[in-house]
Amino acid sequence: AYMLKYDSTHGQFKGDIKVLSDGLEVNGKKVKFYTERDPANIPWAESEAYYVVESTGVFTTTEKAKAHLKGGAKKVVISAPSADAPMYVMGVNNETYKGDVDVISNASCTTNCLAPLAKVINDEFTIIEGLMTTIHSYTATQKTVDGPSAKDWRGGRTAAQNIIPSSTGAAKAVGKVIPELNGKLTGMSMRVPTANVSVVDLTVRIEKGASYDEIKAVIKKAADGPLKGILGYTEDDVVSTDMNGDNHSSIFDAKAG
């Protein structure tokens, strides 16, 4: 209840929260809580929770995520990239999902930012090759003070004092959700001392020549049309905190180009 009510990044939850013996009541709606190491032991069927979001960051393969099905769930969405589960990104390839697969991945936050933009540009101008860099807020896996890191030495340096170069699989993941871009994009990540909101900088070579104004017009048309609510567009003098809490997967900053 405390963690739901108070949030350092998104502020205080103003709704009504009550603690129950087996969960919470939020604005009159009961939410059951379970404490299990093995997802197979969670009785999803009892709660009539047929669609489960696997967001622990631990059970990211199809085999591991399928444990939720043993408890009665019918479909599982992994909220992270997966080594073997098919990936779907809203506004990009979600309409190709036919319901025949029980475990899918929603890819990473960076992929959800990059893929809609790459799709719009590729559909209109055809991308030959591209480089993306994400300026990424620090995450819970990073350190408040220097320490050892399982990934690499740089990953163990204090998050609030450093810009930390890191790898990202977002560019490669775009090739999975947009097959015609497979092998055409590469990228890297910079972890920076901000709590939320990240930036993706995309540089591409395109077959069909275009001015920046023409590119902006195409993106704005998509943002106002088929990708409305997924791809945003702004010409305001914004900074990262202005995007905090925004629901779009991606917001095109026209003045940054």
UniProtKB/TrEMBL annotation:
Q: In which pathway does it act?
A: Carbohydrate degradation; glycolysis; pyruvate from D-glyceraldehyde 3-phosphate: step 1/5
**Assembly mode:** Homotetramer.
- Enzyme nomenclature, EC number: 1.2.1.12
Mention one GO biological process in which this protein takes part, according to its record: glycolytic process
Q: Which organism is it from?
A: Botrytis aclada
GO-annotated cellular components = cytosol
Coiled coil ranges (UniProt) are none
Family annotation (SMART domains): Gp_dh_N (SM00846)
Supply the name of the protein.
glyceraldehyde-3-phosphate dehydrogenase (phosphorylating)
What's a single GO MF annotation on this record? NAD binding
Give the EC class as a word.
oxidoreductase
What the entry lists under InterPro entries is as follows: GlycerAld/Erythrose_P_DH, GlycerAld_3-P_DH_AS, GlycerAld_3-P_DH_cat, GlycerAld_3-P_DH_NAD(P)-bd, NAD(P)-bd_dom_sf
Q: Which family does it belong to?
A: Belongs to the glyceraldehyde-3-phosphate dehydrogenase family.
Q: Which residues form the Glyceraldehyde 3-phosphate dehydrogenase NAD(P) binding domain?
A: 1-109
Q: Which UniProt keywords apply?
A: Glycolysis, NAD, Oxidoreductase
Matches recorded under SUPFAM superfamilies: Glyceraldehyde-3-phosphate dehydrogenase-like, C-terminal domain, NAD(P)-binding Rossmann-fold domains
Q: What is the lineage of its organism?
A: Eukaryota, Fungi, Dikarya, Ascomycota, Pezizomycotina
